[in-house]
Known about the structure:
There is one protein chain. This protein has 353 residues and is an alpha/beta fold. The chain is built from eleven helices and twelve strands. It has helices at residues 36-47, 79-91, 148-168, 182-187, 202-205, 207-216, 242-255, 281-291, 304-312, 323-327, 331-338; strands at 8-10, 13-15, 19-21, 52-59, 95-101, 129-130, 144-145, 172-177, 225-231, 259-263, 294-298, 318-321. The protein has an eight-stranded parallel β-barrel, surrounded by five helices. It has a two-stranded antiparallel sheet with strand order 1-2. The protein is globular, with a radius of gyration of 19 Å.
Amino acid sequence: MSKLFSPLKIKDLTLKNRxxxxxxxxxxxxxxxxxxxxxVHYVSRAVGGSAVVIQxxxxxxxxxxxxxxxxxxxxxxxxxxxxxxxxxxxxxxxIPGIQLAxxxxxxxxxxxxxxxxxxxEGPHAxxxxxxxxxxxxxxxxxxxxxxxxxxxxxxxxxxxxxxRSIKAGxxxxxxxxxxxxxxxxxxxxxxxxxxxxxxxxxxxRVRILFxxxxxxxxxxxDDLSLWVRISATDWVEGGWxxxxxxxxSKLLKEKGVDVIDVSTGGLVSDAKIPVxxxxxxxxxxxxxxxxxxITGAVGLFTEAPHMEELLETxxxxxxxxxxxxxxxxxxxxxxxxxxxxxxxxxxxxxxxH
Length: 353
């Protein structure tokens, strides 16, 4: 059996292989509600053989959405539509996951297909918040710096969203602390110039994440798993970097987080990112070796032998796939055949040969 299609046990959950569908925004919701598009999109990837299907960034409060068309889980009324999705994901032998998010200063934006610029007025605009009043782009309306009470409210919103996520049937809860959104904004000295308990030192800058984790961990039974996505570097001198990411990962492991999902960038608009094959792998590798935390790598993975090599050489434990699964929902089925593993094609598709 290949490493890519070997199981991985995390607490009482067993991942049938090492392929995880990475969260990718669909910009197709109204008032945060899932609909038929989301159902077909996510369930098809379960049918296609992914071990874990992680739902796109799902806002814990309305003002935490990137755009007005983002999914949300800030009210109980959202639960029923999500339950339909998770039930079917499990029916097809995958584990349903959800990425809980707050976009911070990068919220109140137009849809990506429309350019994604900040919406400054009208029904699809709202006040943005951040650790400090520093806009993402010079032309953006500066965000409002959160008071400490506001930070505590954000942590409680993540707790309430987790409670709803569990009721909706999600087994993996991933905290979005990457890509320049609110939690990442606290991490980096480039966007956090605070002088209180949430700014300055490394311990203070990561405090918001641990406030959130402290709210969530008591809810995590053995059949649930807590993951965190980070950007391991800002790709900018003086920003968040790999040594700080390693230190954070060690603390997350001690705290009880099960998996770290390692991406990079997204904090500032002018970062020079050397996008290419394996460009993020050294960060996942460095974190895995230094912390011993179960580590996922992500970024332009398209070929099964390449993924197998990363796992065999212990650069990571999980392969997070995004764009490839947008192009081919059934990539895991084809990858298993390519690597000579047991055919995982659903019986209904048996005549495809």
